Amino acid sequence: MTSKIEFGTAGIPISSKERNSVAGIERVKELGLDAMEIEFVRGVRMGEETARQVGKTAAENGIALSVHAPYFINLNSEEKEKVEASKRRIWNSLRIGEICGAETVTFHPAFLGKSSREQCMQSVEEALGELLDRLEKEDMKIQLAPETTGKNSVFGSLEETLELCKRLKGVLPMPDFAHLHARCNGCLKEKKDFVKLIEKIPSKYLKRLHMHTSGINYSEKGERNHLEMEESDFKYKAMLEALKEKNVSGVIINESPNIEEDALRMKKYWAII
């Protein structure tokens, strides 16, 4: 099978004349890109009627959609009401994302706080298990895709994410390669480093892997902020070469500040390797 990657933007392209998701999808198509992640990072503020229009526009233009749930999620909080609020935010993202026709909802699962990593894992597993049960009951197709995070002090290493997927059938990994680069203090230096990382991911996920990337600024403690690719030491060409070598297919969402420019830069390079 030939490796096929679709490239898209984290949110409405900067060059879109109108700041709404329908116009954003249309602009993604005009740019020659393939996907868009709907950003609910400050809250789920899209109504059902708008979601239906978003889904219709995406289908008409052949644009793959995904959703990023709000940042204010901590499934390991010591305060029960915060865990419940986090589950509601994820559920609202799933519900509206399903109407849009989005494939996945990604999110940052939890902070470690005072708990051990295994205790945190169990808290996240329990909360996501409840959401999976609800998805099944509602006969919804959209899938949960926890994202790898950029700091060691936060739950979300690749190993933790894959273990969560192993424990919960129906949960998909969302590797953020820039986060993983920051998490290991810049260890992804060559194609072989990305190959080793990809080889950790079970092959069943590599047929339709949802991914994030960007330029990244980091310190010894991990991620600081996103950068444009050309301002960063993140080797996006080596990443793409590794994905092609390992025959990975899926979607790469670019989170650089110049979201469409770096997405197009990656798509252009992908076409010639």
Describe the structure.
The structure is a single chain. The chain is an alpha/beta fold and 273 residues long. It has one domain (5-270): Divalent-metal-dependent TIM barrel enzymes (TIM Barrel, Alpha-Beta Barrel), CATH 3.20.20. Helices cover 42% and strands 16% of the residues. It has helices at residues 21-31, 48-61, 80-100, 117-137, 158-167, 177-183, 191-198, 236-245, 259-270, and strands spanning 5-10, 35-39, 64-68, 104-107, 143-146, 209-213, 215-219, 222-227, 250-254. The strands form two sheets. A seven-stranded parallel beta sheet has the order 5-4-3-2-1-9-6. Helix 2 (48-61) crosses helix 3 (80-100) and helix 7 (191-198) packs across helix 8 (236-245).
